[in-house]
Write a structure and sequence with these properties.
Blueprint (H helix, E strand, L loop, with lengths): L9 E6 L3 H4 L6 H11 L1 H15 L2 E5 L17 H9 L22 E2 L14 H7 L4 E7 L1 H14 L3 E10 L3 H11 L6 E3 L1 H11 L2
Parallel strand pairs: 1-2, 1-4, 2-3, 4-5, 5-6
Length: 209
């Protein structure tokens, strides 16, 4: 069954579009580069966001916590990713790596939600509130990483009653098996639709009528 999205009730959630993830010279880009280039990540993200804006679909930026000195150090149980950030200072506030990629900058009408500390864009943020205030029922998840923040945010969205769409080639992960798990094993247990970018663009176009 083909999908169709009412632009008044649909939002694209752009998760963690930081230079450290997406740009040459970013701290995490070398680990992502092979998978990102294989799926055409950057071009697909550009296409997904552009088609959403053209159709009047709400775009929300869903950023990870930008590291600051002292983060996590006094916590009882920081998770493995947080322990890694303590060492590498990924997404450091005030640094180039902690800025959004130049092609993915907020525009008037976009919403930048509160930063998430873990993997879900909903936990301890205003994402659910913002979606409800904008009348959103359908969320489309793009960005990074497929098997962590995308998956966790998508699962949380499903639990809150949203229609959830994953986009196979508008995300990436560190290894092929992580992509397989995200889209072939885990995704079908919570997502209502798993599309390619071309299918997403067509569905957004179809919803404008």
């Amino acid at each position: 069954m083909s999908e169709s999205y009412d632009p008044r009730r649909t939002a694209v959630l752009l998760v963690d579009p930081f230079n450290d993830f997406l740009s040459e010279g970013g701290k995490i880009w070398p680990r992502l580069q092979a998978q990102a280039e294989e799926v055409g990540l950057l071009d697909n993200l550009r296409s997904a966001v552009a088609s959403a804006r053209e159709a009047g679909v709400q775009v929300l930026f869903v950023p990870h916590r930008r590291w600051e000195p002292g983060d996590y150090e006094s916590w009882d149980h920081p998770n493995p990713t947080q322990r890694s950030i303590m060492k590498t200072h990924s997404f450091a506030r005030g640094s180039w790596g902690g800025e959004f990629h130049s092609d993915f900058q907020p525009r008037p009408g976009d919403v930048v939600v509160q930063e998430h500390w873990g993997q879900s864009g909903f936990a301890n943020t205003d994402l659910d509130f913002q979606l409800k205030q904008h009348g959103i029922s359908h969320v489309v998840l793009v960005g990074l990483l497929a098997n962590t923040c995308i998956e966790s945010t998508g699962r949380f969205a499903m639990e809150l009653g949203y229609h959830v769409t994953l986009v196979r080639d508008a995300t990436a992960a560190f290894r092929p098996e992580m992509m397989q798990a995200a889209h072939e094993l885990n995704g079908p247990t919570f997502a209502h639709a798993i599309l390619d970018t071309g299918e997403l663009v067509a569905a957004i176009e179809g919803g404008k009528a």
